[in-house]
Amino acid sequence: MTLPEEPNLAIVGATGAVGRELMNLLIERRFAHGRLRLLASARSAGRLLPYCGTSLAVEELTERSFADIDLAFFSAGGAISRQYAPAAVEAGAIVIDNSSAFRMDDDVPLIVPEINGNGLARFSGPAIIANPNCSTIIALMAATPLHRAATVKRMVISTYQAASGAGAAWMAELQQQALDHAAGTPYTMRTTGRQLLFNVFSHNSPLGPEGYNEEEMKLLRETRKIWSDESVLISATCVRVPVLRAHSAAINLTFARPLDEQEAHRVLAEAPGLRVVDDRAANRFPEPIDADGKDDVLVGRIRSDISQAPGMGMDMFVSGDQLRKGAALNALQIAEMLP
Fold first, then answer.
1. Checking CA distances to 126, which of 134, 171, 203, 332 falls within 20 to 30 Å?
2. How is the chain split into domains, by residue range?
3. Choice among 33, 52, 134, 238 that is catalytic
4. How far is CA 339 from CA 27, 92, 117, 118, 152, in A?
5. Is the pLDDT of residue 326 over 70?
6. pLDDT tens-digit map of 61-106
7. Does residue 134 carry a catalytic annotation?
8. 247 given a catalytic annotation
9. CATH of region 9-131+327-337, choose from 3.40.630.30, 3.20.20.450, 3.40.50.720, 3.90.550.10
Protein backbone atom coordinates (compact mmCIF):
# COMPACT_ATOMS: atom_id res chain seq x y z
CA MET A 1 0.00 0.00 0.00
CA THR A 2 1.30 3.44 -0.94
CA LEU A 3 0.01 6.38 1.06
CA PRO A 4 -1.62 9.26 -0.82
CA GLU A 5 0.39 12.48 -0.98
CA GLU A 6 -2.00 13.94 1.59
CA PRO A 7 -3.35 10.98 3.59
CA ASN A 8 -6.37 11.29 5.82
CA LEU A 9 -5.25 10.85 9.43
CA ALA A 10 -6.76 9.73 12.71
CA ILE A 11 -5.24 10.13 16.15
CA VAL A 12 -6.66 7.73 18.73
CA GLY A 13 -6.08 9.15 22.20
CA ALA A 14 -5.92 12.70 20.88
CA THR A 15 -6.60 14.28 24.28
CA GLY A 16 -3.67 12.50 25.97
CA ALA A 17 -0.12 13.74 26.32
CA VAL A 18 1.22 11.75 23.36
CA GLY A 19 -1.75 12.61 21.17
CA ARG A 20 -1.35 16.31 21.81
CA GLU A 21 2.39 16.07 21.16
CA LEU A 22 1.69 14.33 17.86
CA MET A 23 -0.64 17.15 16.80
CA ASN A 24 2.11 19.67 17.52
CA LEU A 25 4.63 17.61 15.54
CA LEU A 26 2.34 17.36 12.51
CA ILE A 27 2.51 21.15 12.34
CA GLU A 28 6.16 21.48 13.28
CA ARG A 29 7.34 18.91 10.71
CA ARG A 30 4.84 20.08 8.07
CA PHE A 31 3.46 16.61 7.55
CA ALA A 32 1.13 16.98 4.57
CA HIS A 33 -2.27 15.46 5.19
CA GLY A 34 -5.92 15.72 4.32
CA ARG A 35 -8.59 15.25 6.94
CA LEU A 36 -7.47 14.92 10.57
CA ARG A 37 -9.88 13.03 12.80
CA LEU A 38 -9.34 13.28 16.57
CA LEU A 39 -10.67 10.27 18.46
CA ALA A 40 -11.06 9.61 22.16
CA SER A 41 -13.52 8.18 24.67
CA ALA A 42 -17.16 9.24 24.83
CA ARG A 43 -16.48 11.54 27.78
CA SER A 44 -14.10 13.62 25.63
CA ALA A 45 -16.37 13.77 22.58
CA GLY A 46 -17.13 17.35 21.56
CA ARG A 47 -14.06 18.79 23.25
CA LEU A 48 -12.28 21.32 21.04
CA LEU A 49 -8.52 21.09 20.55
CA PRO A 50 -6.51 23.86 18.89
CA TYR A 51 -4.85 22.96 15.61
CA CYS A 52 -3.32 25.11 12.87
CA GLY A 53 -5.02 28.30 13.99
CA THR A 54 -8.42 26.72 14.33
CA SER A 55 -10.12 24.13 16.55
CA LEU A 56 -11.02 20.53 15.85
CA ALA A 57 -13.75 18.65 17.71
CA VAL A 58 -12.88 15.35 19.33
CA GLU A 59 -15.06 12.48 18.15
CA GLU A 60 -16.05 9.39 20.07
CA LEU A 61 -13.94 6.37 19.10
CA THR A 62 -15.97 3.54 17.58
CA GLU A 63 -15.23 0.74 15.16
CA ARG A 64 -16.75 2.93 12.41
CA SER A 65 -14.35 5.82 13.04
CA PHE A 66 -11.87 4.83 10.32
CA ALA A 67 -13.89 5.19 7.13
CA ASP A 68 -11.69 6.98 4.55
CA ILE A 69 -8.74 7.07 6.97
CA ASP A 70 -5.38 6.19 5.39
CA LEU A 71 -3.15 6.38 8.47
CA ALA A 72 -4.16 5.98 12.12
CA PHE A 73 -1.93 6.76 15.09
CA PHE A 74 -2.91 4.91 18.28
CA SER A 75 -1.85 6.32 21.67
CA ALA A 76 -4.57 5.24 24.04
CA GLY A 77 -3.23 2.09 25.70
CA GLY A 78 -3.07 -1.59 24.87
CA ALA A 79 -6.71 -2.46 25.53
CA ILE A 80 -7.93 0.23 23.13
CA SER A 81 -5.41 -0.80 20.48
CA ARG A 82 -6.39 -4.46 20.72
CA GLN A 83 -10.07 -3.56 20.35
CA TYR A 84 -9.92 -0.93 17.62
CA ALA A 85 -6.67 -1.29 15.63
CA PRO A 86 -7.97 -4.36 13.74
CA ALA A 87 -11.06 -2.35 12.78
CA ALA A 88 -8.85 0.43 11.41
CA VAL A 89 -6.88 -2.09 9.35
CA GLU A 90 -10.09 -3.70 8.12
CA ALA A 91 -11.23 -0.24 6.98
CA GLY A 92 -8.03 0.11 4.92
CA ALA A 93 -5.75 2.14 7.22
CA ILE A 94 -2.13 1.68 8.17
CA VAL A 95 -1.93 1.72 11.97
CA ILE A 96 1.10 3.00 13.88
CA ASP A 97 0.51 1.81 17.41
CA ASN A 98 2.25 3.30 20.44
CA SER A 99 0.98 0.67 22.88
CA SER A 100 2.50 -2.70 23.79
CA ALA A 101 -0.44 -4.63 22.32
CA PHE A 102 1.23 -5.92 19.14
CA ARG A 103 4.94 -5.27 19.64
CA MET A 104 5.94 -8.88 20.07
CA ASP A 105 3.71 -10.28 17.32
CA ASP A 106 5.91 -11.97 14.73
CA ASP A 107 4.11 -10.35 11.81
CA VAL A 108 4.18 -6.80 13.26
CA PRO A 109 7.31 -4.72 12.58
CA LEU A 110 8.76 -2.99 15.67
CA ILE A 111 10.47 0.10 14.31
CA VAL A 112 12.91 2.80 15.36
CA PRO A 113 13.58 4.57 12.03
CA GLU A 114 17.26 5.34 12.70
CA ILE A 115 17.89 1.72 13.74
CA ASN A 116 15.75 -0.61 11.63
CA GLY A 117 13.72 1.68 9.41
CA ASN A 118 14.83 -0.35 6.41
CA GLY A 119 12.33 -2.96 7.59
CA LEU A 120 9.59 -0.71 6.26
CA ALA A 121 10.77 -1.27 2.69
CA ARG A 122 9.24 -4.75 2.88
CA PHE A 123 6.09 -3.45 4.53
CA SER A 124 2.76 -3.51 2.76
CA GLY A 125 -0.42 -2.30 4.34
CA PRO A 126 -3.05 -1.90 5.52
CA ALA A 127 -1.54 -3.44 8.62
CA ILE A 128 -0.11 -2.57 12.03
CA ILE A 129 3.35 -1.13 12.73
CA ALA A 130 4.42 -1.00 16.37
CA ASN A 131 6.24 1.82 18.11
CA PRO A 132 8.64 0.41 20.74
CA ASN A 133 8.45 1.31 24.41
CA CYS A 134 9.78 4.78 25.20
CA SER A 135 12.67 3.51 27.35
CA THR A 136 13.65 1.01 24.67
CA ILE A 137 13.76 3.71 21.99
CA ILE A 138 15.81 6.15 24.07
CA ALA A 139 18.29 3.53 25.25
CA LEU A 140 18.75 1.86 21.86
CA MET A 141 19.37 5.15 20.08
CA ALA A 142 22.72 5.18 21.91
CA ALA A 143 23.36 1.45 22.39
CA THR A 144 22.73 0.40 18.79
CA PRO A 145 25.61 2.29 17.13
CA LEU A 146 28.00 0.66 19.60
CA HIS A 147 26.32 -2.71 19.05
CA ARG A 148 27.02 -2.37 15.33
CA ALA A 149 30.62 -1.40 16.02
CA ALA A 150 31.53 -4.09 18.55
CA THR A 151 28.48 -6.39 19.09
CA VAL A 152 26.86 -6.00 22.50
CA LYS A 153 26.75 -9.30 24.35
CA ARG A 154 25.25 -7.95 27.57
CA MET A 155 23.48 -4.73 28.58
CA VAL A 156 22.69 -3.68 32.15
CA ILE A 157 20.44 -0.63 32.27
CA SER A 158 18.87 1.49 35.00
CA THR A 159 16.18 3.93 33.87
CA TYR A 160 15.03 7.17 35.45
CA GLN A 161 11.57 7.63 33.98
CA ALA A 162 9.56 10.84 33.93
CA ALA A 163 5.94 11.32 34.89
CA SER A 164 5.02 11.76 31.22
CA GLY A 165 5.53 8.04 30.66
CA ALA A 166 2.46 7.40 32.80
CA GLY A 167 0.35 10.02 31.03
CA ALA A 168 -0.91 13.56 31.27
CA ALA A 169 -2.63 12.96 34.62
CA TRP A 170 0.69 12.00 36.24
CA MET A 171 2.34 15.10 34.82
CA ALA A 172 -0.45 17.28 36.21
CA GLU A 173 -0.23 15.61 39.62
CA LEU A 174 3.55 16.08 39.84
CA GLN A 175 3.02 19.78 39.15
CA GLN A 176 0.23 19.86 41.73
CA GLN A 177 2.46 18.20 44.33
CA ALA A 178 5.01 21.00 43.79
CA LEU A 179 2.23 23.53 44.43
CA ASP A 180 1.12 21.55 47.49
CA HIS A 181 4.66 21.63 48.86
CA ALA A 182 4.93 25.38 48.32
CA ALA A 183 1.60 25.89 50.05
CA GLY A 184 2.43 23.55 52.92
CA THR A 185 -0.65 21.41 52.24
CA PRO A 186 -0.87 17.59 52.02
CA TYR A 187 0.32 16.16 48.73
CA THR A 188 -2.31 15.34 46.12
CA MET A 189 -1.99 11.63 45.32
CA ARG A 190 -5.24 10.76 43.56
CA THR A 191 -3.51 9.56 40.37
CA THR A 192 -0.01 8.51 41.39
CA GLY A 193 -1.10 6.89 44.65
CA ARG A 194 2.08 8.13 46.35
CA GLN A 195 4.41 11.09 46.62
CA LEU A 196 6.41 11.54 43.41
CA LEU A 197 7.86 14.95 44.28
CA PHE A 198 11.24 14.54 46.07
CA ASN A 199 10.92 10.78 45.68
CA VAL A 200 11.99 7.83 43.51
CA PHE A 201 10.16 4.51 43.35
CA SER A 202 9.96 1.32 41.34
CA HIS A 203 8.21 1.68 37.98
CA ASN A 204 4.44 1.50 38.30
CA SER A 205 3.95 -1.62 36.18
CA PRO A 206 3.06 -5.08 37.46
CA LEU A 207 5.77 -7.38 38.75
CA GLY A 208 6.25 -10.82 37.24
CA PRO A 209 7.12 -13.99 39.14
CA GLU A 210 10.83 -13.48 38.48
CA GLY A 211 10.74 -10.08 40.25
CA TYR A 212 11.08 -7.94 37.10
CA ASN A 213 8.30 -5.51 36.27
CA GLU A 214 6.69 -5.24 32.84
CA GLU A 215 8.74 -2.19 31.85
CA GLU A 216 11.97 -4.06 32.55
CA MET A 217 10.85 -7.07 30.53
CA LYS A 218 9.88 -4.82 27.61
CA LEU A 219 13.47 -3.60 27.43
CA LEU A 220 14.65 -7.20 27.21
CA ARG A 221 12.14 -8.51 24.67
CA GLU A 222 11.95 -5.44 22.46
CA THR A 223 15.71 -5.00 22.24
CA ARG A 224 16.11 -8.61 21.11
CA LYS A 225 13.44 -8.14 18.44
CA ILE A 226 14.80 -4.83 17.14
CA TRP A 227 18.37 -6.16 17.05
CA SER A 228 17.22 -9.56 15.68
CA ASP A 229 19.39 -11.17 18.35
CA GLU A 230 17.86 -13.52 20.90
CA SER A 231 21.25 -14.17 22.49
CA VAL A 232 21.93 -10.70 23.90
CA LEU A 233 21.75 -10.66 27.72
CA ILE A 234 19.82 -7.77 29.28
CA SER A 235 19.00 -6.85 32.87
CA ALA A 236 17.01 -3.71 33.63
CA THR A 237 15.88 -1.75 36.67
CA CYS A 238 13.22 0.86 35.93
CA VAL A 239 12.15 3.59 38.35
CA ARG A 240 9.99 6.71 38.35
CA VAL A 241 11.65 10.02 39.17
CA PRO A 242 10.17 13.50 39.78
CA VAL A 243 10.90 14.73 36.23
CA LEU A 244 8.11 16.02 34.03
CA ARG A 245 8.73 14.60 30.54
CA ALA A 246 12.25 13.32 29.68
CA HIS A 247 13.53 9.83 30.51
CA SER A 248 17.15 9.06 31.37
CA ALA A 249 19.11 5.83 31.61
CA ALA A 250 22.49 4.61 32.83
CA ILE A 251 23.72 1.93 30.43
CA ASN A 252 26.54 -0.57 30.88
CA LEU A 253 27.59 -2.64 27.87
CA THR A 254 29.77 -5.71 27.41
CA PHE A 255 31.19 -6.20 23.91
CA ALA A 256 32.21 -9.22 21.87
CA ARG A 257 35.34 -7.39 20.66
CA PRO A 258 37.30 -4.41 21.99
CA LEU A 259 36.07 -0.86 21.46
CA ASP A 260 38.06 2.00 22.95
CA GLU A 261 36.62 5.20 24.33
CA GLN A 262 37.78 7.40 21.44
CA GLU A 263 36.16 5.13 18.86
CA ALA A 264 32.95 5.03 20.90
CA HIS A 265 32.86 8.84 20.91
CA ARG A 266 33.30 8.91 17.14
CA VAL A 267 30.62 6.29 16.52
CA LEU A 268 28.10 8.08 18.75
CA ALA A 269 28.89 11.51 17.31
CA GLU A 270 28.15 10.23 13.80
CA ALA A 271 24.92 8.41 14.71
CA PRO A 272 21.66 10.03 13.53
CA GLY A 273 19.29 11.32 16.20
CA LEU A 274 21.99 11.54 18.88
CA ARG A 275 23.81 14.51 20.37
CA VAL A 276 26.93 13.92 22.43
CA VAL A 277 27.01 15.96 25.66
CA ASP A 278 30.22 14.91 27.35
CA ASP A 279 32.19 17.74 28.98
CA ARG A 280 34.24 16.24 31.79
CA ALA A 281 36.05 19.49 32.57
CA ALA A 282 32.77 21.28 33.27
CA ASN A 283 31.04 18.16 34.65
CA ARG A 284 28.24 18.62 32.12
CA PHE A 285 26.50 15.56 30.77
CA PRO A 286 22.97 14.68 29.61
CA GLU A 287 20.22 16.04 31.84
CA PRO A 288 16.50 15.50 31.32
CA ILE A 289 15.81 19.23 31.51
CA ASP A 290 18.07 19.73 28.48
CA ALA A 291 16.37 16.91 26.55
CA ASP A 292 12.88 18.31 27.25
CA GLY A 293 11.31 19.39 23.96
CA LYS A 294 14.25 18.20 21.84
CA ASP A 295 14.18 15.61 19.07
CA ASP A 296 17.70 14.27 19.65
CA VAL A 297 18.59 11.84 22.41
CA LEU A 298 21.48 13.17 24.50
CA VAL A 299 24.35 10.81 25.29
CA GLY A 300 27.37 11.35 27.55
CA ARG A 301 29.40 10.03 30.51
CA ILE A 302 31.01 7.83 27.86
CA ARG A 303 33.78 5.87 29.53
CA SER A 304 35.42 2.47 29.43
CA ASP A 305 34.17 0.13 32.12
CA ILE A 306 37.22 -0.41 34.33
CA SER A 307 35.66 -3.56 35.82
CA GLN A 308 36.00 -5.34 32.47
CA ALA A 309 39.01 -6.24 30.32
CA PRO A 310 40.35 -3.22 28.39
CA GLY A 311 37.96 -2.19 25.63
CA MET A 312 35.42 -4.89 26.43
CA GLY A 313 32.91 -2.71 28.28
CA MET A 314 31.48 0.79 28.15
CA ASP A 315 29.35 2.99 30.43
CA MET A 316 27.20 5.90 29.28
CA PHE A 317 24.22 8.01 30.30
CA VAL A 318 21.35 9.09 28.05
CA SER A 319 18.40 11.48 28.29
CA GLY A 320 15.57 11.76 25.79
CA ASP A 321 12.18 13.41 25.59
CA GLN A 322 9.68 10.66 26.30
CA LEU A 323 6.79 12.37 24.54
CA ARG A 324 8.82 13.13 21.41
CA LYS A 325 11.43 10.53 20.44
CA GLY A 326 10.06 8.13 23.03
CA ALA A 327 6.59 8.20 21.49
CA ALA A 328 5.04 10.78 19.12
CA LEU A 329 8.14 11.72 17.13
CA ASN A 330 9.14 8.10 16.55
CA ALA A 331 5.62 7.33 15.31
CA LEU A 332 5.64 10.29 12.93
CA GLN A 333 9.11 9.40 11.65
CA ILE A 334 7.75 5.94 10.82
CA ALA A 335 4.92 7.60 8.87
CA GLU A 336 7.42 9.80 7.04
CA MET A 337 9.30 6.69 5.87
CA LEU A 338 6.26 4.87 4.51
CA PRO A 339 6.30 4.44 0.73
1. 134
2. 9-131+327-337, 136-322
3. 134
4. 21, 16, 12, 11, 32
5. yes
6. 999 999 999 999 999 999 999 999 999 999 999 999 999 999 999 9
7. yes
8. yes
9. 3.40.50.720
